[in-house]
Design brief:
two-stranded antiparallel ribbon, four-stranded mixed beta sheet, alpha+beta
Length: 123
């Protein structure tokens, strides 16, 4: 279970605790526990929106879970956090100094998808 999954209702920032799936052929909205992975065509809902869910006229709401416990961090979440902290603490390699005597052409520095190029006239 991933704590970064939020309720898909517009403007809601609460953590998701249930997953909503529509079964169009049965005219049913199926509301169950939070799915392990976010899937296309499913909607993650917080506890408030899951309990207040109603279906369109002629449709049925099938509730597979009636209580929605607060999500707890999994070991995967904690390992990902530890890896991020470890990566942020690593020293960055220093850039090689550019000597002004020799004309440098080509790529000097790179940041993401952007490059800094130096021509022979700039050296």
């Amino acid at each position: 279970m991933n704590l970064s999954r939020k309720c898909t209702k517009t403007g809601c920032r609460q953590p998701a605790v249930a997953t909503l799936t529509y079964a169009y052929s049965d005219r049913a909205a199926v509301l169950g526990p939070l799915a392990t992975y976010a899937e296309p065509h499913t909607y993650d809902l917080c506890a408030e929106h899951a309990t207040r869910l109603t279906a369109p006229r002629g449709w049925e709401v099938l509730r597979l879970a009636t209580e929605y416990p607060d999500p707890e961090p999994s070991s995967d979440d904690l390992l990902a956090l530890a890896d991020a902290v470890r990566e942020a603490g690593r020293p960055r390699p220093a850039a090689a100094p550019v000597t002004p005597e020799a004309p440098v052409t080509g790529e000097v520095a790179r940041r993401g998808h952007l490059r800094i190029l130096r021509g022979s006239a700039e050296a």
